[in-house]
């Protein structure tokens, strides 16, 4: 039987609740669709700092290295915000993981499920038909550029971040975005700030070159400020949005807002091998942590992305998406997207319903009903 090893890094806040609720679904899907998953848990983030003094202990890194994928919850929280920046969970664990495994492309698919149109803050006629994917560059730009840090001068403290991109970094993530566009509606929008930033000028030039290999993909350009506006005015115009690291971070939270909740936004961080890191785009949500009310959909759909990108288990991935859609069709929701109080589920209850539906659908060999496939 095909066997895949998965490093499970639940982290902080809602991370452990979401991962705990999702693992049985992934395990069930693997049994139903004929492959085996070996999960190995490891500490990360603030939880790891408390236990070992480090946000990314060596043992965790070793476990990740001997796995084919990382299934990640979330890291961070107020308790660790006062640590020196280089020791905080986000900078000492998540960013190094992305960098160490060269996971340069972050895929964040956003669609407005027909069943969830009432959860969107936008009018139904604007939210309906939204089906886009943000391809965010993940290992470069202002997050990693040097110099970075603080300088003490006679005038006081100065802080520096550097936005830098090499052509090769733009080329490789652009190729991923064009390949995805080919499998979708063949429209790619490069979001940048080429009217101000030199790095954006290089992005435009490089993306135009790469586009020559993809004559079937329609390429257009949009400044990031306008893109932020267009996402709320006319989000259905987008198919693939390609952007640098920081713009992608900001726009993806906005795009999740269009769908109704950050708890709906899954993500895959991939590189040039099959290894990937799969996590919700949202964070540790301290405001709702520990209450069993967080929406597990982003975590569950991140599992589907893992099946698809790291294991090529497409059928199981699609079955998970269908099961989530079916549970939503029946009206069940977690509190963040619920309208009718009689259908509100806890995190665990919602995940259990997805597992039940997965099994039921398998038994009746139900065909997929909708897709959130990038
Ligand atoms: N990948 C990560 O690990 C990651 C990502 C983003 C933020 N963070 C960290 O998380 C901490 C909190 O950051 P924040 O509050 O700015 O962002 P957040 O993403 O944790 O939360 C933003 C809002 O979205 C809601 N939300 C997020 N996930 C949800 C879910 N599954 N179900 C329902 N609602 C959900 C939260 O309740 C909150 O109102 C910070 O330490 C931040 O650095 C980590
Ligand atoms: C926690 C933080 C470092 C991270 C990022 O900015 O990449 C998060 O916001 C995300 O979107 O994955
Ligand atoms: Mg973010």
Automatic annotation (TrEMBL):
<comment type="subunit">
    <text>Homodimer.</text>
</comment>
<feature type="binding site">
    <location>
        <begin position="77"/>
        <end position="90"/>
    </location>
    <ligand>
        <name>NAD(+)</name>
    </ligand>
</feature>
<keyword id="KW-0464">Manganese</keyword>
<feature type="binding site">
    <location>
        <position position="225"/>
    </location>
    <ligand>
        <name>Mg(2+)</name>
    </ligand>
</feature>
<feature type="binding site">
    <location>
        <begin position="283"/>
        <end position="295"/>
    </location>
    <ligand>
        <name>NAD(+)</name>
    </ligand>
</feature>
<keyword id="KW-0560">Oxidoreductase</keyword>
<dbReference type="InterPro" id="IPR004429">
    <property type="entry name" value="Isopropylmalate_DH"/>
</dbReference>
<dbReference type="GO" id="GO:0051287">
    <property type="term" value="F:NAD binding"/>
</dbReference>
<dbReference type="Pfam" id="PF00180">
    <property type="entry name" value="Iso_dh"/>
</dbReference>
<feature type="binding site">
    <location>
        <position position="136"/>
    </location>
    <ligand>
        <name>substrate</name>
    </ligand>
</feature>
<protein>
    <recommendedName>
        <fullName>3-isopropylmalate dehydrogenase</fullName>
        <ecNumber>1.1.1.85</ecNumber>
    </recommendedName>
</protein>
<feature type="binding site">
    <location>
        <position position="225"/>
    </location>
    <ligand>
        <name>substrate</name>
    </ligand>
</feature>
<keyword id="KW-0963">Cytoplasm</keyword>
<keyword id="KW-0520">NAD</keyword>
<feature type="binding site">
    <location>
        <position position="253"/>
    </location>
    <ligand>
        <name>Mg(2+)</name>
    </ligand>
</feature>
<feature type="site" description="Important for catalysis">
    <location>
        <position position="193"/>
    </location>
</feature>
<keyword id="KW-0460">Magnesium</keyword>
<keyword id="KW-0028">Amino-acid biosynthesis</keyword>
<comment type="similarity">
    <text>Belongs to the isocitrate and isopropylmalate dehydrogenases family. LeuB type 1 subfamily.</text>
</comment>
<feature type="binding site">
    <location>
        <position position="98"/>
    </location>
    <ligand>
        <name>substrate</name>
    </ligand>
</feature>
<dbReference type="GO" id="GO:0009098">
    <property type="term" value="P:L-leucine biosynthetic process"/>
</dbReference>
<dbReference type="InterPro" id="IPR019818">
    <property type="entry name" value="IsoCit/isopropylmalate_DH_CS"/>
</dbReference>
<dbReference type="GO" id="GO:0003862">
    <property type="term" value="F:3-isopropylmalate dehydrogenase activity"/>
</dbReference>
<keyword id="KW-0100">Branched-chain amino acid biosynthesis</keyword>
<comment type="function">
    <text>Catalyzes the oxidation of 3-carboxy-2-hydroxy-4-methylpentanoate (3-isopropylmalate) to 3-carboxy-4-methyl-2-oxopentanoate. The product decarboxylates to 4-methyl-2 oxopentanoate.</text>
</comment>
<feature type="domain" description="Isopropylmalate dehydrogenase-like">
    <location>
        <begin position="5"/>
        <end position="354"/>
    </location>
</feature>
<feature type="site" description="Important for catalysis">
    <location>
        <position position="143"/>
    </location>
</feature>
<dbReference type="GO" id="GO:0000287">
    <property type="term" value="F:magnesium ion binding"/>
</dbReference>
<feature type="binding site">
    <location>
        <position position="108"/>
    </location>
    <ligand>
        <name>substrate</name>
    </ligand>
</feature>
<dbReference type="GO" id="GO:0005829">
    <property type="term" value="C:cytosol"/>
</dbReference>
<comment type="pathway">
    <text>Amino-acid biosynthesis; L-leucine biosynthesis; L-leucine from 3-methyl-2-oxobutanoate: step 3/4.</text>
</comment>
<keyword id="KW-0432">Leucine biosynthesis</keyword>
<dbReference type="InterPro" id="IPR024084">
    <property type="entry name" value="IsoPropMal-DH-like_dom"/>
</dbReference>
<feature type="binding site">
    <location>
        <position position="249"/>
    </location>
    <ligand>
        <name>Mg(2+)</name>
    </ligand>
</feature>
<keyword id="KW-0479">Metal-binding</keyword>
């Amino acid at each position: 039987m095909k066997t895949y090893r998965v490093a499970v890094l639940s982290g902080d806040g809602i991370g452990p609740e979401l991962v705990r609720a999702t693992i049985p679904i992934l395990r069930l899907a693997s049994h139903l669709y004929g492959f085996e998953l070996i999960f190995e848990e490891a500490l990360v983030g603030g939880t790891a700092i408390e236990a070992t003094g480090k946000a990314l202990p060596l043992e965790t890194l070793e476990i990740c290295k001997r796995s084919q994928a990382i299934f990640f919850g979330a890291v961070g929280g107020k308790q660790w915000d006062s640590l020196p920046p280089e020791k905080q969970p986000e900078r000492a664990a998540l960013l190094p993981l992305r960098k160490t495994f060269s996971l340069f492309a972050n895929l964040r698919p956003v669609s407005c499920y027909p069943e969830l149109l009432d959860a969107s803050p936008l009018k139904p006629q604007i939210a309906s038909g939204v089906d886009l994917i943000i391809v965010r560059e993940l290992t470069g730009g202002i997050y990693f550029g040097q110099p970075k840090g603080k300088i003490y001068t006679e005038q006081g403290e100065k802080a520096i971040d550097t936005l830098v991109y090499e052509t090769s970094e733009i080329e490789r993530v652009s190729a991923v975005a064009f390949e995805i566009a080919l499998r979708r509606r063949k429209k790619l929008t490069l979001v940048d700030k080429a009217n101000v930033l030199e790095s954006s000028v290089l992005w435009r030039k490089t993306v135009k070159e790469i586009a020559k290999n993809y004559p079937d993909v329609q390429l257009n350009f949009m400044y990031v400020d306008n893109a932020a506006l267009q996402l709320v005015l006319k989000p259905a115009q987008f198919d693939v949005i390609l952007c640098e690291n920081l713009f992608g971070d900001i726009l993806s939270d906005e795009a999740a807002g269009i769908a109704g909740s950050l708890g709906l936004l899954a993500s895959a961080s991939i590189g040039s091998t099959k290894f990937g890191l799969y996590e919700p785009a949202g964070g540790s949500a301290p405001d709702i942590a520990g209450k069993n009310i967080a929406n597990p959909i982003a975590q569950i759909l991140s599992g589907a992305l893992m099946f698809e990108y790291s294991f090529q288990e497409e059928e199981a991935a699609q079955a998970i998406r269908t099961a989530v859609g079916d549970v939503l069709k029946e009206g069940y929701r977690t509190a963040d997207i619920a309208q009718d109080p009689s259908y509100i589920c806890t995190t665990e209850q919602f995940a259990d319903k997805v597992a039940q539906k997965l099994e039921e659908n398998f038994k009746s060999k139900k065909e997929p009903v909708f897709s959130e496939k990038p």
